[in-house]
Amino acid sequence: MLYDKIQLIIKRLMLAVPTLFGVLVISFCLTRALPGDPAVYFAGAMADEASIQHVREKLGLDRSLPYQFLAYCNNLLNGELGQSLTTGQSVTYEIKARLPASLELTLLGLFMGLLIAIPLGILAALKPNTWIDHLCRVLVTAGASTPIFFSGLFLMFVFYYLLGWSPSPIGRLDFIYLEPPHVTGFYTIDALIIGDYEVFKAAFAQLLLPASTLALCALAPIARMTRSSMITALESEYVKAAKANGISTNMRVYVYALQNASLPLLTVIGLVFGFLLGGNVLVEKVYSWPGIGSFAIDALVASDYAAIQGFVLIMAVLFVTLNLIIDILYTLFDPRMGRNE
Amino acid sequence: MNSQTIKQDNIAQQLRFLVGQNLLSSISLILFGVYVFLALAGPYLVPYDPLESNTAIALQGPSSQHFFGTDHLGRDVFSRVIVATRLDLGIAVAAVSISFFIGTFLGALAGYYGGWYERLIGRLADIVLAFPLFVLAMGIVAVMGNSLINVIYATAIINIPFYIRIARAEVSLQRDRQYVQAALLSGNSHFRTLFFHILPNCLPNLIVQISINMGWAILNAAGLSFIGLGVRPPVAEWGILVAEGADYIISGQWWLVLFPGLVLMLAVFTFNLVGDTLRDLADPQKRK
Fold first, then answer.
1. TM spans, by residue (chain B) (predicted)?
2. How far is A147 from chain B (nearest CA, A)?
3. Predicted local distance difference test score (pLDDT) of residue B288
4. Whole-model pTM?
5. Could you tell me if B111 lies within 8 Å of chain A, comparing CB atoms?
6. What domains sit in chain B, N to C, each tagged with a CATH number?
């Protein structure tokens, strides 16, 4: 049994290899599809013929495409994504410095979304066609049609301008506080580690609005999937059998049904994470959040190609990795997996 | 007696369900008509020139003269929102048609011929979907150049995999049906059988996807122009209108964001609802 599962997991890992390879090919194409000659671009505006030739040789642009691709992969393995023109730092350095800000925001948004959507979906499944079910449906449809930058600005208007509950919606931490020493890069966790609750509170307050915006976006698909898979589970034979055997309602709903309904939920979480990585860019723009999304927008405005390519690649690798983890969890949790083989 | 009341109750419930269902569908179809009408006739109906600025009346709230207020240059927000309909829907229609034709063509071939070709196409679709789609669209526009046509191409590319998957699944379901055998035996070529006999039978599900995709495409294009890609100011486009208003939201000029945002949201909502309605129509089990 365990042996079978390990075999299945290895198979999943192998399946991710061609996908990752494809991702690499596409991001390589993005680096080489620049309009005009990339060497002229990377050499800068003031370059003469000799320095362009020098850059061309340095980047390997005078070699064959397969060679260039291998060189590109080799650079990636060494963690080299090129030089950012806007900041003058290497792209790897910039992304490393900014990734925690984006991850802290995305993960909290996902967590808040789950926290609201799962109970909502369960309630809607327990009481179909009541007001809570209708509320769920309205929220789901509205959530799927709301542009994320619009909901972000709306929350900002209500909670900052009208009610004044939220701190000034700019950046990760109000300027009167000092950044906590870097451990994880997540300000909230770092502040907790040194036991500075004041900074923790400030950082959390700053996070709350942008994370809620992302949560609103994540809400819809999670609630819908929870509802439909809970309904399927509640109508199944094993729940009826449990009922016939006198097992209590709570046990049936929250243990028997929910356990089985949580598997399709895992898949949806993977999908939602993809939306959130994209939505993150818009939220970071709205809240001036210093994450990799704002970095990418600045790079877009300045036509800083190396930075954009690094950003797209990192996002794709994050997404593929998360989906892989979800696939593995699925294999581990689903008792049906590995039994037939 | 008792059973009769139960029966009546059921009929009443069914009626309410039907009316409810049709009400929502009717609303969505009416809204759909309104949007199409605005896209076609909008520029001729608006009270002001959407580009005409008049700083004397800058940043005024909604009034009977300016229904949606005025922006920082004194331009009429109502006119700008209405005029933007054509551009936003135009981008979405163009992008969705490209992804429909390319995706359906590739997916239909994959479903019909199977084998290594099917695996190759399926792999390609998987690879595109391995990216967070909005991020991929950003990357494509950045590399191909910051212009409107590239926003359309990027939006089209990220939606192609969905058509590939649907067309492949549908065609491989239909492939072994008897009418296909009949068409082949009466001398139709494979190409003709695939595109004139099988594909029309796959259309219902593809059309549902088109409607839902329209909503996504509008959101995607508006998001891209919100971060400064594609359409440039002073052109009126919903994403840009919201982006321009964003600077004023923390000083309380809410109408600059609210009205374009709501119109945008309602457009996406309409296309999603129309998609749901079409799905119910396409599914004979739900039609009962």
1. 23-46, 89-112, 124-142, 148-167, 206-231, 252-274
2. 6
3. 43
4. 0.83
5. no
6. 3-286 (1.10.3720.10)
